[in-house]
Amino acid sequence: MTRTRLVIASLTVAWLALAGLSSATVHFAVLLRDRAKSDLVTPSDSILDITFENLMDSVVDGMVIVALVSALFSIFGVVLVIYTKWLQENCAARFYYGCIQIV
């Protein structure tokens, strides 16, 4: 049981690190996009500006989804570590957590 809790705790820390990195990437993408909006005001660069803004919007959307999903997985891991009854009584919780980690 202790080994399982240690594995879940370490995976929870990894998911939290991924959530932090994703949120930092979102922040950086928003800064770049806003900087591009303020710097690129000439009509000759409007196609590049629109392409860059679309790219940064895609990065922001993707990283927000990754940050939310990884935060959700880490919260589920913390709940499993705190409430050990779920690990002992309910094999489905272990199965679901294992499937989440594999995916």
Plain-language structure description:
The chain has 103 residues and is mainly alpha-helical. The protein has one domain. The chain has four helices and no strands. α1 packs antiparallel against α2. The longest helix is centred in the first third of the chain and has 38 residues. The model has no long low-confidence stretch (mean pLDDT 78).
Pick out its properties.
103 residues; transmembrane helix; membrane; mainly alpha; transmembrane
Determine the strand fraction and express it as a percent band.
Answer: under 5%
Number of helices: 4
Low-confidence stretches: none
- Number of E strands: 0
Structural class: mainly alpha
Q: Output mean pLDDT.
A: 78
Number of domains: 1
Question: Could you state the order of secondary-structure elements as H and E?
Answer: HHHH
Amino- and carboxy-terminal Cα gap: 23 Å
Radius of gyration over alpha carbons?
20 Å
What portion of residues is helical? over 70%
Gross morphology: elongated
Keywords: Membrane, Transmembrane, Transmembrane helix
Transmembrane segments: 62-84
